[in-house]
Amino acid sequence: MRHRVQRSRLNRQNSHRKATVNSLVRSLVLRNRIQTTLPKAAVASRLANRLMTLGKRGDVSAQRMAFESLQSRELVHRLIHLLAPLFKCRQGGYTRIIKLMPRKGDAAPMALLEWVEFPLEEKPSVETKEAKEKKEVAKEVAVEEKPSFFKSLKKFLHLNLHDKTRQTCS
């Protein structure tokens, strides 16, 4: 009997429901924000929170369990190394659901599912002549010495990930 077993079935069979929710979470990890219907967002939010907890653990077992849902090494790496450090102080509630206007056509309730914290990404900026010259010099150096260029790029990305403006744990 199914007494007190409450689960959103999304009017789908079990395998189709799992595939749908896994696909939504994959898109969330990749794009940081997705637009979907409100019931799907609620179910995907629960799985995303579980995966973020696994990402914060970060051990091999957690990576394998996250791989079961994400089905991509790149997404597991992004979850563990890019997204999880943003939530190291947070004990839960890694996603937020923002209700949107109903969808035209069938008036389905729509929602925006996103992470509470976003990773720092490069922002387009207005380039000056000096900046263009520096880029050209950097390209020339990169062509000549690829290993050192990649090391400096890795250091640059590491510094941006651990920016001092972020909230720190107490």
Give me a quick take on this structure.
This protein is mainly alpha-helical and 170 residues long. Helix content is 54%, strand content 9%. Strands 1-3-2 form a 3-stranded antiparallel β-sheet, covered by helices on one side.
Structural account:
This protein has 170 residues and is mostly helical. It folds into 2 domains: 112 residues, 50s Ribosomal Protein L17, Chain: A; 51 residues, no CATH class. Helix content is 54%, strand content 9%. It is built from 6 helices and 3 strands; from the N terminus they run αβαααββαα. A 3-stranded antiparallel beta sheet has the order 1-3-2, with helices on one face. Helix 5 packs across helix 6. The model has no long low-confidence stretch (mean pLDDT 85).
**Spatial order of strands in the largest sheet:** 1-3-2
The CATH H-level homologous superfamily of the largest domain: Ribosomal protein L17
Number of helices: 6
Structural class: mainly alpha
Number of strands: 3
Average pLDDT reading: 85
Number of domains: 2
Tell me the series of helices and strands, N- to C-terminal: HEHHHEEHH
Alpha carbon gyration radius = 20 Å
Low-confidence stretches: none
What helical percentage do the residues reach? 40-55%
CATH domain class of the largest domain: Alpha Beta
CATH topology of the largest domain: 50s Ribosomal Protein L17, Chain: A
